[in-house]
Amino acid sequence: MKRHFTLIALALILIPYEAGAQEVGLAGILGSKAMLMINGGEPQAVPVGQTVDGVRLISIQGDQAVIEIGGKKRALRVGQHAVGAVGGDGSGKIVMVADGQGHFLTTGTVNGTSVRFLVDTGATMISLGAADARRIGVDFNRGQKALTNTANGQAVVSKVQLDTVRIGDVTLHNVDALIHQTDMPVALLGMSFLNRMEMQRDGHTMTLKKRY
């Protein structure tokens, strides 16, 4: 079967998304998957029927993908984008659906810059890799140095405080974080954020509600 693939990442015109909303761009089509860019993040291959960060891919027709965002269906062609509500109804809740490996991934912002997070209750704090920290404008050298255990042994990290961390319609201020000297495939949403939320898991769904 011939697979249709188009990728025009640079042609996407990204616009700032408002509070409680997110922006989705169609970077390309790869067979039965759409390359979606959510909140300015890197393209993700999303299969038909799957939901990522509140965006559901309904169908693919040629160079067009039909998505559901904010409860509304939108048809996108390669290079187009859509903006829709996500993350709740203003009640301070975040609802996430596990991926195929049972992981909870979400896209948020740190100090206004888009960051891809993996929920990790085993992480004491939010953990950011070097590349994310540079994009955000957080200086590794200005934080308090410490040692942490990783899969590759001990590593030097820098403890900092983030002005704002926002996911959906939940914004927390003055959140502790660890900055790593090396890149990480995804930032960890650790307990410095999760401790300020009420967590409830129901099967493949996790709900976070702002506590204070």
Plain-language structure description:
This protein has helices at about 130-135, 190-195, and strands at about 5, 20-30, 35-40, 45, 50, 55-60, 65-70, 70-75, 80-85, 95, 105-110, 115-120, 125-130, 145-150, 155-165, 170-180, 185-190, 195-200, 205-210. It is mainly beta and about 210 residues long. It has 2 domains: about 5-85, SH3 type barrels; about 95-210, Cathepsin D, subunit A, domain 1 (Beta Barrel). Strands 11, 12, 13, 14, 15, 16 and 17 form a 7-stranded mixed β-sheet that branches. Strands 1, 2, 3, 4 and 9 form a 5-stranded antiparallel β-sheet that branches. The chain has a 4-stranded antiparallel β-sheet with strand order 5-6-7-8, with no helix packed on it. It is globular, with a radius of gyration of 18 Å. Residues about 1-20 have low confidence and may be disordered.
Helix/strand structural class? mainly beta
Distance between the termini: 53 Å
Number of strands: 19
Fraction of residues in helix: under 10%
Q: Rg, please?
A: 18 Å
| Proper CATH architecture of the largest domain | Beta Barrel
CATH class of the largest domain: Mainly Beta
